[in-house]
């Protein structure tokens, strides 16, 4: 009896004891591209690291972002090329498009990538912790009741799409939900004017959905160079997208037959099969940051300095949670540099956020780097800025009934004509930009471009022959 009482008391004592803290050199919150890249680079330096993730490995980019979006962009490109086949002499008839075929192939591909990411963590001997992370008062991170400590802690928890606070907004989907669609919607309304709205509207339109794009102002991509904003808006309309300018949704109702009715500031839209919100993103920062002194700005983004340091001791942040340059390669580059600084004695290493190239997979695609013409004039004055422009029809369309144009702009700072920005829209511009970005990053001038022999016939030669 006494022995049984002792056993009972011992078990009770164990159950009430605080959980043992598991220590790491580097604890990463977020199993997306940035967090995994930083953790794996740290592991190369002999660091004991762990990554915490509650969802699928790879984060937004791999699962509901860049990668599956690019698959759908390429699918849409095939739809566009089919219209051109007859002009090139091919007798091709489109019988139907089967959404389910590409969805299955795409989803299988993403699952393979999830496995590759998980396998890479195992190869790097990084512990995978599955669950939601929460900071505790003592500076640890708790997941599913287990506490973990880190000599250095990185927050790379990404972001999520915004759903507006209006009646019936739950009847719409976000970019996440786009990849769950089982079939091509007959009639779609996309709300938003940013790159996600433009890309998804273009994909759905090219594949055969009747698409309306609802924007608050007159043009899409208003934060881009004015040439890009105007040209992309024009190309969307030329392709058949109906742009609803200066319009906002007030109310959404679902009918008995399952379609949606939208009450907007400019009228009513009926028989909508798919309403897609693409009005921005917010950071995933519900982590108990206040317990460890990590400060956020008015929009909820974690405040960091040039070295990704937060206001919390030995706590860092990068990627979408910081609200700046929301691009996967930016998070990867920042994460790797951070690991070099923390664990490889490279004290001054940090990511340079100037001249980051980016692409919008619109139809046709956009490539851009550097400042806009408006920004250049504001910073340096109109008398010190020289702009070169070119608009032409790509050779591909020389024999096609369907036409798209290519727009290019180069912004230079006088007197040496240092290139401050390159902006282009047109077939192949997504692939062109990477090489030109290297030149801009190195401080190239217009003279350097002029001295480069053109590759003919290509669209990219226009940038080295501008006058």
List keywords for this structure.
single chain; 32% helix; alpha/beta; 467 residues; five-stranded antiparallel beta sheet; seven-stranded mixed beta sheet; 21 strands
Question: Could you give a quick summary of the protein structure above?
Answer:
This protein is α/β, with parallel strands linked by helices and 467 residues long. 32% of the residues lie in helices and 23% in strands. The longest helix has 25 residues, at 99-123.
Descriptive overview:
- By secondary structure, the protein is α/β, with parallel strands linked by helices.
- The chain contains twelve helices and 21 strands.
- The chain has helices spanning about 1-15, 35-45, 60-65, 65-85, 100-125, 175-180, 195-205, 225-240, 330-345, 375-380, 430-440, 445-450, and strands at about 20-30, 50-55, 125-130, 135, 140-145, 145-155, 160, 185-190, 210-215, 240-245, 250-255, 260-265, 265-270, 275, 280-285, 315, 360, 365-370, 385-390, 405-415, 420-425.
- Strands 1, 2, 3, 4, 5, 6 and 16 form a seven-stranded mixed β-sheet that branches. Strands 17-18-21-20-19 form a five-stranded antiparallel β-sheet, with helices on both faces.
- Helix 4 (about 65-85) packs antiparallel against helix 5 (about 100-125).
- The longest helix is centred in the N-terminal third of the chain and has 25 residues, at about 100-125.
- About 40% of the residues are buried.
């Amino acid at each position: 009896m006494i022995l049984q009482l002792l056993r009972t008391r011992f078990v009770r004592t164990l159950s009430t004891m605080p959980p043992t803290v598991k220590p790491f050199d580097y604890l990463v919150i977020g199993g997306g591209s940035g967090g995994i890249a930083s953790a794996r680079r740290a592991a190369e330096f002999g660091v004991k690291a762990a990554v915490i993730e509650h969802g699928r490995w790879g984060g937004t980019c791999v699962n509901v972002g860049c990668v599956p979006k690019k698959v759908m962009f390429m699918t849409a490109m095939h739809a566009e090329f089919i219209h051109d086949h007859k002009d090139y002499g091919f007798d091709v008839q489109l019988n139907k498009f089967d959404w389910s075929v590409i969805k299955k192939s795409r989803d299988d591909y993403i699952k393979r990538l999830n496995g590759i990411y998980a396998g890479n963590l195992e190869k790097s001997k990084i512990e995978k912790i599955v669950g939601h992370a929460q900071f505790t008062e003592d500076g640890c991170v708790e997941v599913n009741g287990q506490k973990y400590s880190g000599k250095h802690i990185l927050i790379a928890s990404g972001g999520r799409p915004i759903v507006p606070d209006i009646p019936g907004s739950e009847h719409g989907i976000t970019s996440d939900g786009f990849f769950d669609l089982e079939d091509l919607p007959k009639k779609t309304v996309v709300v938003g004017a940013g790159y996600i709205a433009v890309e998804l509207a273009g994909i759905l339109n090219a594949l055969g959905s009747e698409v309306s794009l609802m924007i608050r102002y007159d043009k899409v991509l208003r934060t881009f160079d004015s040439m890009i904003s105007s040209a992309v808006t024009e190309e969307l309309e030329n392709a058949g997208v109906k742009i609803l300018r200066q319009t906002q949704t007030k109310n959404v109702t679902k009918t008995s037959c399952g379609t949606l009715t939208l009450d907007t500031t400019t009228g009513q839209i009926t028989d909508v099969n798919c309403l897609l919100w693409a009005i921005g993103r917010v950071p995933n920062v519900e982590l108990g940051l206040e317990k460890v002194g990590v400060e956020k700005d008015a929009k909820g983004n974690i405040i960091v300095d040039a070295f990704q340091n937060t206001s919390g001791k030995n706590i860092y942040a990068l990627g979408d949670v910081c609200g700046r340059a929301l691009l996967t390669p930016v998070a990867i580059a920042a994460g790797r540099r951070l690991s070099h600084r923390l664990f490889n004695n490279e004290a001054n290493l940090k990511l340079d956020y100037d001249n980051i190239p980016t692409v919008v997979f619109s139809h046709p695609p956009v490539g851009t780097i550097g400042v806009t013409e408006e920004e250049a004039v504001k910073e340096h004055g109109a008398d010190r800025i020289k702009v070169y422009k070119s608009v032409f029809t790509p050779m591909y369309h020389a024999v096609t009934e369907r036409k798209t144009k290519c727009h290019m702009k180069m912004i230079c700072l006088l007197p040496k004509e240092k290139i401050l920005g390159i902006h282009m829209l047109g077939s192949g511009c997504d692939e062109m930009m990477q090489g030109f970005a290297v030149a801009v990053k190195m401080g190239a001038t217009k003279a350097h471009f002029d001295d480069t022999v053109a590759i003919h016939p290509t669209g990219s030669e226009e940038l080295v022959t501008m006058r």
